[in-house]
Each structure stands twice: as C-alpha cells, then as structure tokens.
Amino acid sequence: MLMDQVQETIAYIEQKTTLKPKVAIVLGSGLNSLADELQKPCVIAYKELPHFVVSTAPGHQGNLIFGYLDDVPVLCMQGRLHVYEGYSLETITYPIRVMAALGIEKLILSNAAGGIDIDFAVGDLMIISDHINFMGRNPLIGANETEFGPRFNDMTFAYDRELRGLAHQTAEELGIKLQEGVYLACTGPSYETPAEIRMFRSWGANAVGMSTVPEVIVAAHCGLKVLAISCISNMAAGILDQPLTEEEVLATGAKVSHDFCRLVKAITAKL
Ligand code: HPA
Predict the structure, then answer these.
(1) Which amino acids bring their CB within 6 angstroms of ligand 1?
(2) Which of 16, 75, 173, 187 is deepest in the core (most CB within 10 A)?
(3) What CATH number should be reported for the domain holding residue 27?
(4) How far is the C-alpha of 158 from the C-alpha of 5, rounded, in Å?
(5) CA distance 250 to 263
(6) Whether the predicted model's global pTM rises above the 0.90 cut
(7) Which structural domain, as residue segments, surrounds residue 122?
C-alpha cells in the first residue's frame, strides 16, 4: 500500500528533523536559489530517502530541505521530478503524498514555462489560475486509497482563490508585476511545435510547461491548498522567430530569481 511506503519515508525524515512545517515549496527550473535562504537547514538528499527517486533534470539538485524562511518553518523541494525523466506520474507525485501525511497544509509550486499569451514577456511571473492536463494520463489512475482522498476528486478550486488573492496583493506591495493564467502541461522532453502552441492558445492556455499539473492533482486529492507560480522563461515555440533552448530557460530563471524569492518569502510570512 502507498500509505505504508509514505509512513516509512516519514519515519526516516523524523529521525533527521523534528520540524513540523505547514507550508511546502517546490522549486522549479532556475528557481532553486530560494533554498539557499533557508535558516537552520536540515538537508535530506532524495537518494537517501526510502521510496524517493533521484532528480535527473538539469539544475534540479534533488534535496528535501527543512528550515526557516524568515522565522516560518517550511519544507522545500530543491528540484522536482518530471515525467520526461522516465518516471510514472505516481512516482513523481509521491513527495506530495509524503508532504500531506507530514501535516503540510499549503503548497507553493513553481516552474519555468513557455509564454503562449502574446501579452506576456520573458521574465514575467504568472500565478496559475487553472490548468489543462495534456499529459495523456492522470496520477490518480489505479486503486484509490481513501486515507489520501476520494476516488473522484474535485478540481474546481484546485488553485486556491484566497492564496491567489494573497499573491496579487503581496506582489503589488512589493512592486512586482504579476500575470495570471491557465497553464497547460505536456510530458516533454521535446518542446512543443508552433502548430501545437497555436492550438493550445485557441484552447485558452496562457503558458505551457512539463510539470506541476500532476502535483496539483495529487495535492487536490490530499486536500492541500495550492498556489502555483510560473516563471515565463521563454516565449513558446513559433511566437518568436528563434529556437528554444534549455540555456534560455535556466538563464531567465536566474534573472527573475530575486523577485521570485522576494515574492515567495513575503507570501510565506503571511500564511
Ligand atoms: N515549453 C515547455 N516547457 C517549458 C517551456 C516551453 O516553452 N519553457 C520552460 N519549460
């Protein structure tokens, strides 16, 4: 049973730290530096954790870090797991189940995404208001363990309205420009084609990426409140007359990292 595995992971974590955060933060591509700001960090590598798999994506360190962000206890995933690494959706969302069983109540997810909305600019931050799952699968397929959540879980309020409001209010206070929109998830690892991007725009997607949606589905299943922030690291395929590169994605992440960290820290302080 999945819950038995989760309890084994938790037993290992509890030997390493007594901290019981209510907030968890998942750091996406190019946005890892927030983890360096944690005070009194307890770093646990994914590779030492029972039932965790390692992160192989560029720029994803693969550490679970417990610590304080300006006096607020938090759990940080420094680097996430992706379906394009060859892992199942069940495997990449396992850490979310561990978080829920540890007592996490609010989850802040971040990612790098391609901008589909032509009113967006590279370097913008976007609050995700809703998503389109174009990964072709759902992480909840299979036997349902009711200790986690119901068989058919509601996704209407998956992106918590109050947290989105708090994010906008905080961004305004800090003078940070914040967009909002619908995130569409593909498996990758190829970037999309220009024809796919035109289709996604007609469907109402504002940004595209290769993560987050499976985690949000499982978080909703476990009853976590979610805030998700995309860093528009590049304009999606075909919008500009230039190829897409991993270097651009990571470089933009590094450039907006300062504002991203300020925003997440200020939001966390209000939770
Ligand atoms: N497409 C998919 N995933 C991404 C992109 C993109 O353009 N940019 C960053 N992650």
Answers:
(1) 112-114, 191-192, 208-210, 233-234, 236, 244, 249
(2) 75
(3) 3.40.50.1580
(4) 25
(5) 19
(6) yes
(7) 2-270
